[in-house]
C-alpha cells in the first residue's frame, strides 16, 4: 500500500515484484555511479589550470569510453531480459480468473468454477467504513489463495483499460476483442490495491482493483459460500 510522500516502490508481495525491485536498485546504482563520474569530469575540466595532451587526443582513452558504455549496457540488459521472460512465464496455474474492464468497474469470472463471478464497484466515499481507503475500496474483492500461481485473463467490454496491482508486479492492458494474460503468486496473505492504469473516460479514477490473498482453506470456504449465494 502506497503512503503519502513515498519515494520508492510499494513493498513487494510476489516473487516477481521482488525481482523487479532488485533490478531497479541495480540499475539505479549504475546510473548513480555514472552521474558521479560525469560530474567529477566536468568539475575537473572546468577548474583545472593545465591541460594534458594525452587526454585531449588519445586513442587509448577513446577505446575506453567506447568499450565501457557497451559493457555497462550489457550489465543492464541481461538482468532486464531475464525478468522480461520471467514475466511471460505461466506454468501450471492453480487458478484462472478472467478480469473484464467496463466503464467504470471490473468484472471477475472464476473460470475453474461453473458459476462463480461478480462485478466489483468502487465504494462511494459516504459509504466507507472506518479504516477503509477512499477511491480504493470495492464492494467485492478478488479473492485468491496465497502461495499459488494465479493466471489472470484480461479483456475489456468497451474501451481500453489496464489491470494493474503494483505490489504484485502486475500490469496488463485490457483491450476489447483481445484476451491478454498475466500471472502472479501472492507470497503472503494480505489486501493489495491497484487501479485502472489506462485513461478510459470520465470515471477512470473510480475503478479500483482489490486483491485479497488468503490461505487455501479460507479461499475454499469463501468460494463455497459464493457458490451457495449464486
Automatic annotation (TrEMBL):
<keyword id="KW-0812">Transmembrane</keyword>
<dbReference type="InterPro" id="IPR045187">
    <property type="entry name" value="CcO_II"/>
</dbReference>
<keyword id="KW-1133">Transmembrane helix</keyword>
<dbReference type="GO" id="GO:0005743">
    <property type="term" value="C:mitochondrial inner membrane"/>
</dbReference>
<keyword id="KW-0249">Electron transport</keyword>
<keyword id="KW-0472">Membrane</keyword>
<dbReference type="GO" id="GO:0005507">
    <property type="term" value="F:copper ion binding"/>
</dbReference>
<keyword id="KW-0186">Copper</keyword>
<feature type="domain" description="Cytochrome oxidase subunit II copper A binding">
    <location>
        <begin position="92"/>
        <end position="225"/>
    </location>
</feature>
<keyword id="KW-0460">Magnesium</keyword>
<keyword id="KW-0496">Mitochondrion</keyword>
<dbReference type="InterPro" id="IPR011759">
    <property type="entry name" value="Cyt_c_oxidase_su2_TM_dom"/>
</dbReference>
<dbReference type="GO" id="GO:0042773">
    <property type="term" value="P:ATP synthesis coupled electron transport"/>
</dbReference>
<keyword id="KW-0679">Respiratory chain</keyword>
<dbReference type="InterPro" id="IPR008972">
    <property type="entry name" value="Cupredoxin"/>
</dbReference>
<dbReference type="InterPro" id="IPR014222">
    <property type="entry name" value="Cyt_c_oxidase_su2"/>
</dbReference>
<dbReference type="GO" id="GO:0016491">
    <property type="term" value="F:oxidoreductase activity"/>
</dbReference>
<dbReference type="Pfam" id="PF02790">
    <property type="entry name" value="COX2_TM"/>
</dbReference>
<dbReference type="GO" id="GO:0004129">
    <property type="term" value="F:cytochrome-c oxidase activity"/>
</dbReference>
<feature type="transmembrane region" description="Helical">
    <location>
        <begin position="63"/>
        <end position="85"/>
    </location>
</feature>
<keyword id="KW-0479">Metal-binding</keyword>
<dbReference type="Pfam" id="PF00116">
    <property type="entry name" value="COX2"/>
</dbReference>
<keyword id="KW-0813">Transport</keyword>
<dbReference type="InterPro" id="IPR002429">
    <property type="entry name" value="CcO_II-like_C"/>
</dbReference>
<feature type="transmembrane region" description="Helical">
    <location>
        <begin position="27"/>
        <end position="51"/>
    </location>
</feature>
<dbReference type="InterPro" id="IPR034210">
    <property type="entry name" value="CcO_II_C"/>
</dbReference>
<feature type="domain" description="Cytochrome oxidase subunit II transmembrane region profile">
    <location>
        <begin position="1"/>
        <end position="91"/>
    </location>
</feature>
<comment type="function">
    <text>Component of the cytochrome c oxidase, the last enzyme in the mitochondrial electron transport chain which drives oxidative phosphorylation. The respiratory chain contains 3 multisubunit complexes succinate dehydrogenase (complex II, CII), ubiquinol-cytochrome c oxidoreductase (cytochrome b-c1 complex, complex III, CIII) and cytochrome c oxidase (complex IV, CIV), that cooperate to transfer electrons derived from NADH and succinate to molecular oxygen, creating an electrochemical gradient over the inner membrane that drives transmembrane transport and the ATP synthase.</text>
</comment>
<dbReference type="InterPro" id="IPR001505">
    <property type="entry name" value="Copper_CuA"/>
</dbReference>
<keyword id="KW-1278">Translocase</keyword>
<dbReference type="InterPro" id="IPR036257">
    <property type="entry name" value="Cyt_c_oxidase_su2_TM_sf"/>
</dbReference>
<comment type="similarity">
    <text>Belongs to the cytochrome c oxidase subunit 2 family.</text>
</comment>
<protein>
    <recommendedName>
        <fullName>Cytochrome c oxidase subunit 2</fullName>
    </recommendedName>
</protein>
<keyword id="KW-0999">Mitochondrion inner membrane</keyword>
